[in-house]
Amino acid sequence: MSVGTSEGCSGKVEEAEKFFLSALQEAKEGFGERDPHVASACNNLAELYRVKKEFDKAEPLYLEAINILEESFGPADIRVGAALRNLGQFYLMQRKLEEACVCYEIQVRVLGHGHVDISDTMYHLGMVLYMQGKEKEAEALIQDSIRILEEGGLGESSICVKRLRYLAQIYLKSNRPAEAENVLRKILHIMELSKGWNSLDTIYAAEALALTLQSTGNLKEAQSFLKDVLMPGKHYFQKTIFRDEHIREMFQIAT
């Protein structure tokens, strides 16, 4: 980044900070110190400080927003849950896992396990628990977050695919290749339906599955699989993406 560009970005951030500080003051004067509008202004300013990595300034604003919302709507309100999610992501960004875990657990209790909006929180809580070495609890939460997306008609979304990939990695790292294989087959099926075989994403999904098959000693199945799914598009990939070393190696295995 050039010096001029850096200074320009810095100037915009400083301008945004002045705007959010002014908005917070106006909310307090116009609605009162403990009004939900103040909570919203606190959260906006906290998000800016988070982006600037001024964490000491951001944290008290997140906490103030939560306190105001709890006073206004009660601790079980969905708006409190959303504010807790923001605070949880703030802690997770800093790898403060215990604090993030508390925020996410409270939000889950506030919204309930069946709520669509809770899917993101369950996934993030699962990530935190996995980092803490609590693999069973993490796996259950991530599976539930995927189930909620699927039941909400988002089973083929990029968000769901990302979570499926994370779940497959958990299985592989815990030496459960058969379960990882099932998840990777599901991902490949989604990619095939949504993007077709002329997509690099689909080919990478096929590669991940083939490598898993190879790791379990199923070399013939891996080779047969690659022939079935990759060779029909060989002409296309030779012209477009054969420059990728991984793709070339896959075709070598299949032939």
Topology readout:
Layout: H1 3-31, H2 36-51, H3 55-73, H4 78-93, H5 97-111, H6 118-131, H7 135-151, H8 158-173, H9 177-195, H10 200-215, H11 219-230, H12 234-240, H13 245-254
What is this entry, summarized?
This protein is 81% helix and 0% strand. It is an all-alpha fold and 255 residues long. The longest helix is centred in the first third of the chain and has 29 residues, at 3-31.
Label this structure with key terms.
mainly alpha, elongated, 255 residues
Tell me what portion of residues adopts beta-strand conformation.
Answer: under 5%
User: Alpha-carbon distance between the termini?
Assistant: 45 Å
Whole-number radius of gyration? 23 Å
Shape label: elongated
Encode the helix/strand succession as letters.
Answer: HHHHHHHHHHHHH
The main sheet comes to: none
Low-confidence stretches: 1-8, 234-244
Give the structural class.
mainly alpha
Counting DSSP E segments of at least 2 residues, the number of strands comes to 0
Mean pLDDT, nearest integer? 82
